[in-house]
Fold:
Amino acid sequence: MSRIRLLPDIVASQVAAGEVVERPASVVKELIENSIDAGARKIEILIRRGGISLVRVVDDGCGMDRDDALLSLERHATSKIRSAADLAAIATLGFRGEALPSIASVSRFRLTTREPNAVAGTELIVNGGKIDIVRDGGEAPGTQVEARSLFYNLPARRKFLRSENTESRNIEHQLQLQAIGHPQIAFAFVRDARLVFQLPPAANLHDRIRDLYGNELLERLLPVNGAGLDKIEISGLIGRAGLSRQTRAQQLVFVNGRAVESPVLTAALREGYHTALMKGQFPVTFLFLNLDPASVDVNVHPAKREVRFRDPTAVREAVVNSIRRTLEGGRSDWQEKFRAPASRPPQPIETTPKIPEPRHGELPQLAAALGEGGYNVVAGVADPGRAVVKPDEFASETPIKRDRNRQFQIIGILNKLYVLMENADGLVLVDQHAAHERILFEELRRRMEEQGVPSQKLLIPQTFDLPPRDAEWVGRNLSILQKMGIGIEGFGPNTFKIDSLPAFLQASDPISFMQRVLDDLKSASNSSSALRLGEEMIAMTVCRHAVKANDPLRYLEVEKLIQDLLECDLPYCCPHGRPTMIQISLSELEKKFGRKA
Structure:
């Protein structure tokens, strides 16, 4: 007797629906995508009990006639592709023709639709995949879809739904994704008879972000500099250095208007921010990539969340370069925030002592040059014997006369750690340790890239084996590893020998260190400097030798510290991602003192 049987149509529909309809948020996503593809300019969403009891989506799109409405409930019936060749260049959000029949097979389903010039529309009522009623409808032009009692005929699936609040939050997140991805469309969201938000059509992304998240977040975002990219248009807004979240909830990336999740893009964002982001934190991004539909495959995941790029390296390079240019390009605006108040009259310039440039060959002696005592920022040498400067002594020192182009006004030092500065917007606090870390980090990295990394011989050379694929990769990149200060050479088939490591590295296990380096190198973009693999060690080194929390500094030292910080490529944060400066606005101070409501 044959053990293989064809499944009934109803069961087959429910099995297929499990891939498309995971939860109420999946229903909302699919219906909104259909509305957007239909040219809707206004979309209204209403839910009850987290979408389990009711999901209703109403749009003012092109609508359908009766024949198309009936055909839309057949599996794999779609107006968006015609042949297999169309799958190679999908330009719409939906394309498989599975959403409506899948939703109708697991709910009590109602669809009403009407074309703009039609006298009457069409109403369809479906229960569990079976069409019960087909009749004329009198709704406004567009399409209205209702899905009631989701998974009523699949109690096993219904048990796996979360609480109503959780499902509602998932729906709201999905709506925010669609609203950000399509700011020109108006959205309204009603939950259990309560209006959650109503977004009018926005002229641009800035207005939509302001409507959703407020002006405070918008002021901390930078417009993406995607100029000069070949065949890949990158736009949007990203958070300034220091702005991060503990989750990826606001790390949003859109490819041709579709919100996607991609390991390639996630790694590119992380690399683009690099030292501007603390470990364990995620950037705030609203990033849009527009590229040829033929170069991206969206037919990868049943829910269309993941995409595959034809040239992932080029996409990664484009994103990394855009993020870097944006963060570095915002430096002038950031510096301008810390200018001296216009009310303070400029005075003649007095020259500040200049830090002498270290001579060639001094790089390995970084720790010795910095010394174990207080670091004299002005002289650039260790000064262990100098007296501790008390706060009143700092105040009594004669400040140097102001430069008319000076961008800051120093007030004093708080708790021997925070430099207090005044600017036109209010009060600025500078962490002297974090600021000095950033200065030393960029100086040491620059010298390493120019002069190479000094290495130190191992007492006993180490050998290690690699899989053939990794061994081939190492063989092609031996020169890069050697420039990093790693003395490595072939020692037989798939075997390598290490006889030296960077001088500043404290590695008890050279083999484990090499494995980490190889993993990082393989994940780095082509445009990345190979010396960035040693930046973690550089950051640890400068952290030990930067000005500490209780190191007293004289006025000239503090001023030179701030000047050098403002000249850094990324002055916003230390190499570990912590902020170097914090702004407290005048309006915030006025609120604290009750001068302003």
About this structure: The radius of gyration is 31 Å. The CA atoms of residues 112 and 123 lie 4 Å apart.
